Amino acid sequence: MLDWTELEAQCLSCQRCALADARHHVVFGVGVRDAEVMLIGEGPGENEDLQGQPFVGRGGQLLDEMLELIDLSREKNVYIANIVKCRPPHNRDPLNTEQDACIDYLRNQVALIRPRIIVCLGRIAAMRLIKPDFKITREHGLWFEKSGVSMMAMFHPAAILRDPSRRPDTFMDLKSLQAKIREVCTHTYQ
Ligand code: URA
Predict the structure, then answer these.
(1) pTM of the predicted structure, to 2 decimals
(2) Which of 55, 106, 129, 160 for a ligand 1 pocket mutation test, highest count of atoms within 8 Å of Cβ?
(3) Ligand 1 pocket: which residues have CB below 6 Å?
(4) What b/e sequence results for 3-34 when a residue is b if at least 16 CB atoms lie within 10 Å of its CB, and e otherwise?
(5) In sequence order, what E strands does 29-180 have?
(6) pLDDT digits (tens, 9 = 90+) for 34-77
């Protein structure tokens, strides 16, 4: 396991898969490094690739608004990262080979942060981190325990923008997250 400085340096110069060729920036992750809550998306989009930060486009603005509803923010008490750190072309889903090449960076981030709660944003992260046959429409908002970490998935912000009828379900999932934080976290709401 690498420390933050070594891990970030290695990740920023990564050439482990072909996504390195077209990237403007590696999107390493952002937020509080002693957070008890980690949020994990699938991979950078266009804005994220240009700015080097996760969730900065319209979906990112929605994510920040959703988090604000339950008193969470990337400045204060969560860490946000992705399964793959470089943008897949045309925002396609990251290939399994790309995920395999990249996943150790995320595992190292999780090992350094040691979160109590991991929230997967969307199907791709949930299939990778919770279980391969995860069904987001049926299983969003449900809690899974893995190695002492409470895990759940919510709809991806981009999916909520595409289909606003997912908002009420997402609000319930956020309330469930808030309740889980009160149950298992010690300093998130200090
Ligand atoms: N979608 C993701 O899954 N991650 C980002 O960082 C941005 C959009």
Answers:
(1) 0.98
(2) 55
(3) 27, 41-45, 48, 54-55, 59, 82, 121
(4) eeeebbeebeebebbebeeeeebbbbbbbbee
(5) 30-31, 37-41, 78-82, 117-121, 144-146, 149-154
(6) 999 999 999 999 999 999 999 999 999 999 999 999 999 999 99
